[in-house]
Write a structure and sequence with these properties.
Blueprint (H helix, E strand, L loop, with lengths): L21 E2 L8 H14 L7 H14 L3 E5 L2 H11 L5 E5 L4 H8 L4 E5 L10 H7 L4 E4 L11 H11 L4 E3 L7 E2 L2 E2 L6 E5 L12 E5 L2 H10 L21 H12 L1 H19 L5 E3 L13 E5 L1 H4 L3 H9 L3 E2 L14 H4 L8 H7 L2 E4 L7 H16 L1 H28 L3
Parallel strand pairs: 1-13, 3-4, 3-5, 6-9
Antiparallel strand pairs: 2-10, 7-8, 9-10, 11-12, 12-14
Helix pairs in contact: 1-8, 2-8, 3-4, 5-6, 9-14
Amino acid sequence: MQGPTSHRLAVLGGQPAFDAPYHVGSPNIGDRQRLLARIEGLLDNRRLTNRGPLVQEFEQRVADIVGVRHCVAMCNGTVALEIVTRALSMRDEVILPSLTFVATAHALQWQQITPVFGDCRPGTHHLDPARIEALVTPRTTGVLPVNVWGRPCDIDGILSVAANRGLPVVFDSAHAFGCSYKGRMMGGFGNAEVFSFHATKFINCFEGGAVVTNDDDLAQAVRLMQNFGFSGRDQVTYVGTNGKMTEVEAAMGLTSLDAMDDFVERNRQNYQAYRAGLQAVPGIELVEYDERERCNYQYVVAEVDERITGIGRDEILQALAMENVDARRYFYPGCHRMEPYRSYFPNAGMLLGNTEDVLDRVITLPTGTAVSPDVAGVIAGLLGRIVEQGAAVKSVLQQASGIRDDAHHRGLRKCANYRW
C-alpha cells in the first residue's frame, strides 16, 4: 500500500495504490472458532431448519436489541418484505422511494402490487412525506419508506401522513439494524420494520432477514405465512410460503451479534478517517451521521458536485478502480429507471427530480472490518489527488474511451463488410 502523497495515480501511469481490491460490503466474519463450534453443535443435534434453537436464540437477541416484542427471522430480507406486506393486505398500489435497492420494489411487483415512486425531500436521501400525501389515490393500500444508509427518514412525518389516510406503514430498515431515531432504537416504528442480514450487511447471516413488530396479531400471521401456514404439526390454517431462516444462517447471525460492538467501532473509525481526509477535498461532501443517535456506520457515502470538482462521479469511480478501490454508485440508476418499471412508468423521472439528482452524485466507499482507518485515509487521499488532477485524469479517460469506441466501430464495419 502506497501513501497518497507519494503515489502517482494509476490512471496517469503509476502503480495501483493497493495490491488487491477493496470492496464496498466485504463481509464481516467474526470469531471463526465460535462460528465453527455452533455449526458443529447443529450438526451434532441434526437440527438444520424449522426454527431450531439457534434461530430462536437469534430472534430473541434481535428483539432485545431493538426493543420489540416479536422478531420473525427469515431466509432473506426480500422474502421478509413480501410476507409482511401481504400479511398487512397491501395490494393495488404502495408508495415507496426510488432511491433504494431494487428488491424493495420487486417485493411489491412480485405480488402484482404497483410500486408508486415518491421523490426524496430536497437535501435528503429519504422519501418526502409531502410527496406521499400528493401520491395517495383510492388504490393506495400502504407506504413502504426506506431508512437508507441506516439514517432514519422523517419517521414522524411519514407516520402522520399515513395515519391521516388510514394507511399501514412498513419501514424497509435493511440498513438500519442497531440505529436509533430520537433516542429510540429502530425496529418498533410503524406496523413493522424489516431488517436485512445479507452478507454485505455489518451483521450478517450469510443470507437472512427479519420482520420485527410489536403487533401480536401481525407477528402471528407473519410466522404462519413464512412456514407454509402450519399452526401445528399437521394443521395448516393459512396460505403460506417457505421463508424460514436455517440454523446455519442463525449460527452466523449469532456470531455476528457477538462481535456487533467491534464491527460498529471499526465502521465508526473508518467513517471518521474518511471524514478527516475528505474535509479539504472540494466538491466531495460526506453524508454525515447524527452522532447523538446510535449508528452502525456501515455505509460511507459521499456526493460529488462536478461543478466544483471539474470531474464527474463516474470518472472518479474509474480512476479509483484503477487503484483497486471498488467504490460504487448506489443505487444507480434508481428503481424507476430499471425494468420493468422503466417500461411501465417511462415518465416517472419527471416527478423524481431530487431523486435523480442524488443518484447522479452518490458514491459509496469501502468500509467494514476488511478496511482499516489507515486504508480509509489512503482512499480519501486518492480522492483528493483525483480531484486535484482532474483535468489530466479526464483527458486520459476520454482518450481511452475514444480508442475503445473507435475499435468498436472498426469491428462493426468489419462485420458489415464480411461476406457471409
